Amino acid sequence: MIKCVNPHVLGWKGEAGIDASTVLSGDSLFTEFKGTLTEQYVCQQLIAQGFQPYYWANPDGRAEVDFVISSNGMILPIEVKAERNLRAKSLHVAVAKYDIPMSVRTSLADYHREDWLTNVPLWAIGCVNRIRQ
Fold this sequence. Notes:
This protein is α/β, with parallel strands linked by helices and 133 residues long. It is 30% helix and 23% strand. The chain has helices at residues 7-10, 20-24, 27-32, 34-48, 89-98; strands spanning 54-57, 64-71, 74-80, 103-107, 112-113, 117-121. Helix 5 (89-98) links the parallel strand 3 (74-80) and strand 4 (103-107). InterPro entries: DUF4143 (IPR025420), Restrct_endonuc-II-like (IPR011335).
């Protein structure tokens, strides 16, 4: 586990070789980088709540979790989706590997809870500290 934000969150800046016209053109920026911008938003919300977000990737690089935090005495992996996409294969890999009882996916979808997963709408990620097992 790495004590930093997901490297992709920081990778969209100028040092990534992105042409300035892409940044200034508005719409294409939000189309091409909506995942990165969404992860940045979630990271800011987690830090504002006092969390130290971590990033996890399995050794073979086939699975990653955008953020891992410690909340209410439990480890809480968080998968960020910029749309209503409800697939969370990497999150499921981490939950199964480490026997984690609860995880969070944040997306444009409404709130709902399954056995091992709570979907929190992006607009409500600032309340992630209220999630209990």
